[in-house]
Please model this.
Amino acid sequence: MKLLVCGGAGFIGSNFVRQRVREHGDEVVVLDKLTYAGRRENLADLEDEVGFSFFHGAIEDADAAADAMQGCEAVVNFAAETHVDRSIAEPDAFVKTHVVGTFVLLEAARERGMRYLQVSTDEVYGSIDEGSFTETSPLAPSSPYSATKAGADLLVASYHHTYGMQTSICRGSNNYGPYQYPEKLIPLMVLNAMHGDSLPVYGDGMQVRNWIFVEDFARGIGFTLDHGEPGEVYNVGGPDECPNIEVIERILEFTGASRDLIEHVTDRPGHDVRYSLSSDKIRALGWEPRVRFAEGLERTVSWYRDNEDWWKPTRSGDYREYYERQYGRKLA
Ligand code: NAD
Ligand code: TYD
Model:
């Protein structure tokens, strides 16, 4: 299959592209705007592969989307602004990429009769105190990030309903693993622990996330592309839930850093307390997660320990400025 993968230079997209090129022999064209989170380095090992090509451009640019799409049978859209804290500070880019960008891609795919898969998030359902969200749970997003992701999901569903387009939506839970930009909880805590920087815990740290190893989510997306029913939504959740403070304690164990680094800071406004997904629907088709949290976290810590060349540039320049603005303190 020849795929257009939008946002393929980011964390999950690059893991997905690696799987499809290496394990499925797909031809893949990546279209990516290369925001602060999108890096060609994430795809460096694929640059010489036959069947891999890269277009630098934004999904909201109809000409760029049309150029990149030539000869492709399906679009898989990962392209997004993905950090909740940034969406609270500056929501503009979230609206543009998620709502306008998804619309432009849908129109271009519809014109060409292409299959379309939207990568989405459990955050569109909002927070849940007990039990787990299913695909029929109402959407109740609470941040500009999740609200604009929910808007994109509704647009995708409408293109199936109205135009009969062959669409799918995959809603993943919190991902972790290699190539994740260190603004997100796990890589931020791993690198801060390795450097002796403080570990900023929002509020009491008792918020719960449903963790999925990135390769499992990427496989779930590929699985949906290959076996999903058009017009359907599939939740792709991880096998384990864990409160943030416990995630940090485990990272301290793996890195050997001191507990004294933990610092409780002002809570995120509108902070969702718990995310939990039921993945029974995609499990019934034959997908299941392979990596439990304890193993995946250890692999992730080892990857960051072994890949200083990858993360070193991210702890300077823009990231350092972002960090100082966000946390009001300097990195070591
Ligand atoms: P990321 O921030 O690492 O990567 C996003 C990629 O999209 C980057 O390469 C960036 O350059 C690109 N991009 C951003 N705006 C673009 C635009 N307008 N045009 C073209 N490219 C653009 O994000 P990620 O964690 O890999 O997330 C990928 C997708 O998975 C997102 O849609 C996100 O909502 C979803 N998701 C993420 C998680 C998670 O825990 N990270 C969980 C569930 C779902
Ligand atoms: P994050 O990785 O930003 O993902 P999301 O908000 O999409 O779930 O955050 C995961 C959890 O960790 C969330 O409850 C917020 C919390 N958190 C902190 O306590 N400190 C931090 O510095 C960060 C980035 C997140």
Summary: Residues 132 and 276 are 5 Å apart (CA to CA). The two ends are 46 Å apart (CA to CA). The first strand starts at residue 2 and ends at 6.
